[in-house]
Amino acid sequence: MNHDPRIILLAHGSSDRRWCQTFEKLATPTLDSVPGSRIAYMELAEPSLETIISEGKNDGITTFTIVPLFLAAGRHLRKDVPGMIEELQDNHDVTITLAPPIGENPQLGNAIRDVVTQELERQKQPA
Amino acid sequence: MNHDPRIILLAHGSSDRRWCQTFEKLATPTLDSVPGSRIAYMELAEPSLETIISEGKNDGITTFTIVPLFLAAGRHLRKDVPGMIEELQDNHDVTITLAPPIGENPQLGNAIRDVVTQELERQKQPA
């Protein structure tokens, strides 16, 4: 099935397997409800962005949208990722769009408020 | 007003003012709805955790809960922040609880799914 654009949830990546597992859990609701979506890591973990773009191209997909699982844009999103995208577009003859980091969407601020409210409720309960 | 425990939303911090502004926006729904809550930075930006604990103590608050605005626990949350907490508890005679990073709460995964769905809708609209 060709799902254009293919959504790629991009996490930083870590050599710590527990770190990656948290991101896999975070990605699950998206992977379950958005056909063809994938998770990829910028560095230090697999699958890499290169792997996911290459697989997509083999499936006939030519447009990709990267949604960064970052709360804010720092050096990685302002410089490193755009550089990787330019190279991947050239090498694989695909079009890649970089969406804003998830933390720039107001939904996230509301989710944080709900997490804090839950934490306060949890603390009120007898141990 | 004494709001015990005082909720502290802890972000990493950055010398890039835009980075901090994103976190201030992310914190706004919580700061608006949880009385006495504050944002603090681990490093590279103000207010520091030390500043916020010290201010709280001056307001008569002795218990604090830190909710990390991190998607997953890496070295900072496993080692650096617990070390800072131990020192702050000793220096200010307060009790500080470290909550799990926001990304370990399933709410966040659902918010990410909603952000992706919005991004796909946005791309479908004529420019």
Describe it for me?
2 copies of one chain form a homodimer. The first copy, chain A, has one domain (6-124): 3-Layer(aba) Sandwich (Rossmann fold), CATH 3.40.50.1400. The first copy, chain A, is 50% helix and 16% strand. Chain A is built from 4 helices and 4 strands. Chain A has a 4-stranded parallel β-sheet with strand order 2-1-3-4, with helices on both faces. In chain A, helix 1 links the parallel strand 1 and strand 2 (38-41). Chain A starts with 5 loop residues before the first strand and ends with a helix. The mean pLDDT of chain A is 94. Chains A and B meet through strand 1, helix 1 and helix 4 of A and strand 1, helix 1 and helix 4 of B. Chains A, B: This is CbiX/SirB N-terminal domain-containing protein.
Instruction: Tell the overall outline of chain A.
Output: elongated
CATH architecture of chain A: 3-Layer(aba) Sandwich
User: From the helix content, strand content and strand pairing of chain A, which structural class follows?
Assistant: alpha/beta
Please write the string of helix (H) and strand (E) elements of chain A. Answer: EHEHEHEH
| First-residue to last-residue Cα separation of chain A | 50 Å
| CATH fold title of chain A | Rossmann fold
Oligomer: homodimer
DSSP, total strands of chain A: 4
Characterize the main sheet of chain A: 4 strands, parallel
Largest interface: A-B, 50 and 50 residues
Helix content of chain A: 40-55%
Overall number of domains of chain A = 1
Strand percent estimate of chain A: 15-25%
What top-tier CATH class of chain A fits best?
A: Alpha Beta
Radius of gyration of chain A: 16 Å
Which parts of chain A are unreliable, with pLDDT below 50 for 5 consecutive residues or more?
Answer: none
Query: How confident is the prediction overall: mean pLDDT of chain A?
Result: 94
Helical stretch count of chain A? 4
Strand order of the largest sheet of chain A: 2-1-3-4
